[in-house]
Amino acid sequence: MSDKQKKPQKLKARLPRGFVDRSAADIHATNEMVAKIREVYERYGFDPVETPLFEYTDALGKFLPDADRPNEGVFSLQDDDDQWMSLRYDLTAPLARHVAENFNEIQLPFRTYRAGYVFRNEKPGPGRFRQFMQFDADTVGAPGVQADAEMCMMMADTMEALGIKRGDYVIRVNNRKVLDGVMEAIGLGGEENAGRRLNVLRAIDKLDKFGPEGVKLLLGEGRKDESGDFTKGAGLDERQISFILKVVANERFVDGEEEMAFNDANKQSGGFAEGFAELDLIRSLVTSAGYGPDRIKIDPSVVRGLEYYTGPVYEAELTFDVTNEKGEKVVFGSVGGGGRYDGLVSRFMGQPVPATGFSIGVSRLMTALKNLGKLGQDEVLGPVLVTVMDGDVESMGRYQRFTQALRSEGIRAEMYQGNWKKFGNQLKYADRRGSPIAIIQGGDERAEGVVQIKDLIEGKRLSGEIDDNAAWREARVAQETVAEADLVAKVKEILAAQAEDRRRAKDI
């Protein structure tokens, strides 16, 4: 066969790596969850704002690498005026740009929430996607830590609004100033120690996972795990390690002659004492409002995205066990967090603009809620199906009128659009769609001005009790005849009965 006679090759359908198609069930579950979160934010007086998916790359600040094409970590392209634009990496940097650009028009404090997709140009892996949804709340223009305390209370209320009971979550709170003070106190201040500081913070972050002894090893020479793999430590001496472990255990005062030098360094580092004072104020505020340590807990071991945080940092952690892909029982862990970022808006303004906020990882939280059986339990009801028995103009118009009458009363409905001549296919279609009811009107019914209403859910139940075809036909299973004028009322009655049956089944 010549090249000219070859059939053109079909285009191969392929999903880009690190991205997913979302099903109707997933979308409904997400909408259900987001609606509950939004209700809490609105109750706290926050209003929605929306920024575009694209920002000029330089507005993303720290994510802009020194490269000819700035696409490390972000997806970037050049505009027609040669300016680089990137898909947003998070929802915070775009908010900072929005506030700076509209500073003279907005009312401070500016209290907003935003839900939307963010994009990471990173290597995808199991459970790691290049596009995922976040839900943020921020207060811009409030310098006091009462704004941070309120964020923590709102996070706690959000967890409970989603059905996560007390004891299954905790909001853990620390302060960047405490961590910075610790670094100065042990002699790791200054730019020249940035790398070592990062190693220390990573070690502290493993406290929940490895305990004090494991962290002690990571702060020192290093730690060997069960498999024999060795992780090089931060190389601190015993006094430095002792001081860090006492601070993260929330021990304020270090005693003993050998540690006096660290106490003196602390006194010189005003940030350390200031950080603890701010944590004390947060504790007082949340306790006064009825949020005890079972819900909001001061925890100096919290280490969180320290690139732009300048004060309190907080994390929402789920404390119940789940089984991981290896079959091991593990604590579910963090589903969101945030903190104070007083320098982010200031980059655009040349003046201090205080801000604090937190972000919920929607997909991760949705996984947790499904584990708890708190989400996606209500099966989305399929549409009532108006079947087609005759294809003439008058009959089709009548079927369409039935469909619109149901829709106008808020009932999900559709008229069959496939090959109507094979009626069995219509009922198979209704079954696949999860339709609760089928409406049937042939020539005989039309002549009498009536319709047949078939309760498909009850019919499915009864079908298990009737195994004789003749008995089945005689029983006219779960099928009623009503006047056309009574169609909508009868459908409502059947749907209400079905809903009650579902409720009872849940309660059993």
UniProtKB/TrEMBL annotation:
Enzyme Commission code(s) on record: 6.1.1.21
One Gene Ontology term from the biological process aspect of the record: histidyl-tRNA aminoacylation
Gene Ontology cellular-component terms listed: cytoplasm
UniProt: L-histidine binding residues: 90-92, 120, 134, 138, 304, 308-309
Gene3D superfamilies the UniProt entry points to: Anticodon-binding domain, Bira Bifunctional Protein, Domain 2
Keyword Mitochondrion tagged: no
Domain Aminoacyl-transfer RNA synthetases class-II family profile: 31-383
Top-rank taxon: Bacteria
Keywords of this entry: Aminoacyl-tRNA synthetase, ATP-binding, Cytoplasm, Ligase, Nucleotide-binding, Protein biosynthesis
SUPFAM superfamilies: Class II aaRS ABD-related (SSF52954), Class II aaRS and biotin synthetases (SSF55681)
Pfam families the UniProt entry points to: HGTP_anticodon, tRNA-synt_His
Family: Belongs to the class-II aminoacyl-tRNA synthetase family.
Self-association state and partner proteins as the record states: Homodimer.
NCBIfam families in alphabetical order: hisS
Name the UniProt record assigns to this protein: Histidine--tRNA ligase
The encoding gene: hisS
